[in-house]
Amino acid sequence: MNLQSMPLELEGEEGCSIGSLAALLAEIAARLERLSAGGKGSAIDLRALPFAPQEYEALRGHLGQGEVSVRIDAIGPSEIFETRYPGLWWVTHCNAEGDITSDLLEITHIPEIIKSHPHDIKAGLASFRAQLDREMQ
Amino acid sequence: MSHQAALGERLAEQGISRRAFLKFCTALASMMALPPGTATAFAEALVKAMRPSVIWLSFQECTGCTESLTRSDSPALEHLIFDMISLDYHHTLQAASGYGAEKSREDAMKSFFGKYLLLVDGSIPMKEGGAYSTIAGRTNLDLLQEAAKGAAAIIAVGTCASFGGIPNAKPNPTGAVPVSDIIRNKPVINLSGCPPIPVVITGVLAHYLTFGGFPELDSLGRPKSFYGETIHDRCYRRPFFDQGKFARTFDDEGARNGWCLFELGCKGPTTHNACATTKWNGGTSFPIESGHGCLGCSEPNFWDAGSFYSALSMPASPLKLTADAAIAGAAIGVAVSVANRIKKRAAKSAHETATIADLEK
Asked: Which of A12, B83, B161, B254 is the most buried (most CB within 10 A)?
């Protein structure tokens, strides 16, 4: 039986909030300000934060979903979307069984995992040229 | 096995993409409490790392530690350990046997003297000159001391190697001791657990390859990133503990509602491990999620710490008695034992549900 299927009685909204959400939102604002001023990107590990279940859902509601979403299939799916606030991305990685292995908020222009790596581009180019050569023959 | 190829090349050969590896490193960084922004640097450093030679010695053990790693349900992740290292000796896993197996150990010790990692599972018997456990005619003590000389560092895998474990339980007939009782001039890191969590082994090796050393350790030599908190700290049943809602038998209303197992003997509050967050069997669950309290298997002397079904608030050791009282107690004990057996037989024939009291008899 997991937590979601358990008849856990929540004793009122105030009693369950442990105050993480307000602190996290202030932290996000400070990081977005740094990024906007030309600073480096950063990330927040949501699994390391002690959220009450409804605080996590409240965070989702607060950040919403923007116009970009990406799905990656690499040893299980990864769901990445930009929140309604540009520069703030929600990145969720799952394993092959679909269990979440990491859950991050990335404050960056574009999450690192989406970018093509120079080595991969080089390898891809070699493969592309080989294919082209075969077709030209 | 080749020591020449860096990890990145090995991964590419196996069709594991850079993005998949970055995901793996992100999850590892999260579990090791590293800042999430370090995952990319972590992955970049790791793909360039040369695979170290690893010698794995198994002493007084049940092979559960090796099983934990090799039978894990997420081969794509935990099995990456076998791409990170060159496993030059592991007498259970290697194809070679007899003299050929021992020669591969000797060759690795000679070729990589001062550089290889030594992994040990199982405790080391000291009584009768170590005669209780020998490999190729040599005692575990002898093999450990020899292999430790050229090791860059030693990883004690599992509770037996870390703290003596079950072989060390009273009355400890073989004089079993942990690695750290014997090797004192090399860094020894303890990855306790019976068995240890597979990703803990992978994570510590990844940290070693990336940063050239072990993560910060607690007072018992365990990495704080995995053993820094108790099971209770991260248990999803913790809200019920805080609300004072406890299961009192394994089939009462509290058990059915998933309430806290403290009163059924759960050792979560005193057990440092990451089961509640990493979980087992591909992230399926951990013992408490299956309805049984934590046994405290990653702590020293867990086997002698009183009944698994007594609450932590109960004294673990009986009061000391005088000789007369002990004899009288023993006589009463025999009588009670006989009575209990009769009761158990009666319960069995009547198909009654066994209680915690029955389990403790």
From this structure: B161
Helix (H, G, I), strand (E, B) or coil at A98: coil
To 5 degrees, how large is the angle CA B321–CA B325–CA B328? 135
B6 vs A: CB within 8 A? no
CA distance B243 to B234: 16
Domains of chain A by range and CATH? 18-136 (3.30.1370.140)
Nearest by CB: B20 against A48, A75, A112: A75
Instruction: Find the length of chain B.
Output: 361
Q: Are B179 and B221 in contact (CB under 8 A)?
A: no
What is the residue type of B103? K
The DSSP secondary structure of B282-345, one letter per residue, reads TTTB-GGGGT-----TTSTTGGGSS-TTS-TTS-SSPPP--HHHHHHHHHHHHHHHHHHHHHHH
Mutation target to probe the A interface, by most A beta carbons within 10 A, among B9, B11, B28, B30 is: B30
B280 forms beta bridges with: B285
Residue B291 contacts by C-beta under 8 Å, 6 or more apart in sequence? A1, B250, B255, B261
Q: Is the pTM of this model over 0.80?
A: no
Task: Tell whether the model's pLDDT for residue B253 goes beyond 90.
Answer: yes
User: What average pLDDT does the segment A50-66 reach?
Assistant: 86
Q: In this structure, is the dihedral angle defined by the CA atoms of residues B125, B127, B130 and B131, taken in order, positive or negative?
A: negative
Given a contact cutoff of 8 angstroms between Cβ atoms, the answer to whether A66 and A83 are in contact is yes
Q: Are B2 and B50 in contact, with CB atoms under 8 Å apart?
A: no
Dihedral sign, CA of A112, A115, A117, A123? positive
Q: What residues of chain A lie within 8 A of the CB of B24, using their CB? A: 75
* Residue A75 Rama label (left phi>0; alpha psi -120 to 50; beta): left
Kindly state the DSSP code that residue B191 receives in the 8-state scheme: E
Nearest CB to B20; choose among A1, A11, A74: A74
pLDDT at A6: 61
Q: Can you tell me which residue has the tokens 């190729």?
A: B136
Angstrom distances, CA of residue B196 to CA of B166, B175, B202, B337: 14, 23, 11, 36
Nearest to B37 among A2, A42, A101 (CB): A42
* Nearest-neighbour CA in chain A from B199: distance (Å): 12
Question: Cβ of B30 and A78 within 8 Å?
Answer: no
Q: Tell me the C-alpha distance between B296 and B25, whole Å.
A: 29
CB atoms near residue B213 (< 10 Å): 12
Residue B239, SS3?
helix
Percentage above 70 pLDDT, chain B: 82
Set of chain B residues whose Cβ sits within 8 Å of the Cβ of A72? 19
3-state secondary structure of B41: helix
